[in-house]
Amino acid sequence: MKTPSFLKPKDKIAIVATARKATLKDLQEALQHIKNWDLEPIIGTSIGLEDHQFAGTDAERAKDLQQQLDDPEIKAIWCAKGGYGTVRILDLLDFTKFKENPKWIIGYSDVTALHSHIHNLNIVTLHAQMCIGVETKTEVSRETLRKALFGETIQYKFPFSNYNKTGAAKGEIVGGNLSVLFSLCGSNSAINTDGKILFIEDLDEYLYHIDRMMQNLKRNGMLENLAGLVIGGMSDMNDNTIPFGKTAEEIIYETVEAYNYPVAFNFPAGHIENNQAIILGKKVNLEVTESTSTLAYLK
């Protein structure tokens, strides 16, 4: 996997909206953090555009992202907001120049579509908080984003869960939002998870749909040959009048119970306040014991 160059002071970081609409006013906190990190923010042309829910039409959003992908002076691209819409522009993009001169792609949730597509180009990306809402996350969350961009060491230690499966594994960490990964199955943006450590998280889903998505990943062969599985926030789940009968954690545990690899719940990433940055595509060491779990990047 090819890793983009780490940032240095005065580098330019572009803000684009690949999905839902965002205004310049929405970005003030993020702009302040960029300046505090001694970086130069570049506002993409999609900011301020509006097409119903989206930040302009598919063509307008794709044009903005394409410009930032191709510009050699832009060293990172920070997605303004998630929601839905990134997948609609994937096939409108040309990654030729980006492959020659890769840069950091930053975001999570709906941006999983972009992460997965770029993973198949053998380029590392950054699963981290969006511009909008950056002030609602923890200082630790913001600091892991900064450290990742500047090439500083990040390690994770997170609490034990009764649904964990102990063990140790090494492999590239991949994944993101479960709903988006599910939606990419069968496309050229779907990731090959064999021998890798899969990270998943989700928000505001019905429990039966969590089960549907996990069964889909299982039947697509995406769970059988993992090196390990890491689960972040499974936040604000919904249920029907007649309960499904299992929590999201129980559904996931049950789906992978028969497989012989470590499973670690409670990872600090996802639609949670402490949404720590993950360098997707990098090799990591995962250790799950009966008291705690740790994940560290390998040299």
TrEMBL record:
LD-carboxypeptidase N-terminal domain boundaries: 13-128
GO BP: proteolysis
A Pfam family of this chain: Peptidase_S66C
Keywords tagged on the record: Carboxypeptidase, Hydrolase, Protease, Serine protease
Source species, domain of life: Bacteria
UniProt key word Iron-sulfur: no
Family of the protein in this entry: Belongs to the peptidase S66 family.
Protein name (Swiss-Prot/TrEMBL): Muramoyltetrapeptide carboxypeptidase
